[in-house]
């Protein structure tokens, strides 16, 4: 199962977790107090750059019947759509810039360049996902309702096609997100299925009509003779934006190390435990300034989940302090290259398409799903006692705290030794079986030889008896 006791899993005391939460609160306050002109300049320049790229791209597409004009215009438009989606639409809708009190750059008024209404995304995403990050049965973004991303979810035959469903989702990511948020919106509003003209349906339909008209009718029509080539360029730009957004989101939520949690973990969850759940349930990927910008700084997914409403341009500096806290409390800081993180998620998608009987690991100790029960018989209990106090708190020898990272390292060593022992035992068992087989072979050979000797003796005895009887018969006959 997923994690039911985050304190036990993290190998921290309640006091440790409370102090961790206070230190993260301190980071939040320091960023909030330092927000100002530099941040406002950043977001306004980003908006201006994005709009400039879009205008340039659409202008170049007037000549899109020329191959190079088509490629250039499509590239410019793709970059513009990515920036609008990741660094603007996503982050503005999170309320990261509400502190500016600028009605144009406010979560309540910003409408992003995606199929689904940003208002529906805000309600579904900010409530369902960021409140209940990776909690089974609560976080609707855990697999987006079509992918099995943890073996805690029972396998169904439909999951066999999830490798194909994953490709479709990647190519049509904006539509997948829109439909996903629309269904959550209707559920939250308790809208009857038969009510076609319900507010969620009307809002959703209007946004679809606007997006389809803009990208596939209006802008292509404005280019006149280049209508078809512009239409293809718009579709290609949307596809590129979808694939990039999909990759960024999956790299931040589904690599190994992004833990899952049960509803039981929510019972009495403290602020510190909420912070800890965000840290353990998210993953980063390594990126330079350009890639970070193009990802909406969601390469810092851990920091985003800790502080979803703080300005994204501050995530790099926040990440330094969060990593220091991970070192201080001996917690893992899950990160890796973009390629590595995606391949881990890709492996999970294909692996969990299969029934559980084809999977080796358990739901307590699998790469994509683990729990505090993975440490059973490996590390010491989570709460300190006279016998186990040395496992928690500060190591008296090194002066360093021993937490989850040490526990994972210890477990890895123990499991490796256990696997080696089992391998040696298997080798010994094979050797014993081989010796037993050899012994039985010798015994069988000796038994066979004995039977053959006995048979020969009996045959010789019968021959001698036959000779005697024949001699007696001749003797009687001669008389």
UniProtKB/TrEMBL annotation:
Q: Which domain of life is it from?
A: Bacteria
Q: Which residues form the Fatty acid desaturase domain?
A: 69-335
Q: Which residues form a coiled coil?
A: 404-454
CDD domains in UniProt: Delta6-FADS-like
Q: Which GO terms describe its cellular component?
A: membrane
Q: Name one Pfam family in it.
A: FA_desaturase
Give the record's keywords alphabetically. Answer: Coiled coil
Give GO terms for biological process.
lipid biosynthetic process
- Identify a single GO molecular function assigned to this protein: oxidoreductase activity, acting on paired donors, with oxidation of a pair of donors resulting in the reduction of molecular oxygen to two molecules of water
PANTHER family annotated for this entry? DELTA(5) FATTY ACID DESATURASE C-RELATED (PTHR19353:SF19), FATTY ACID DESATURASE 2 (PTHR19353)
Name under which the protein is recorded: Putative fatty acid desaturase
Q: Which organism is it from?
A: Nocardia brasiliensis (strain ATCC 700358 / HUJEG-1)
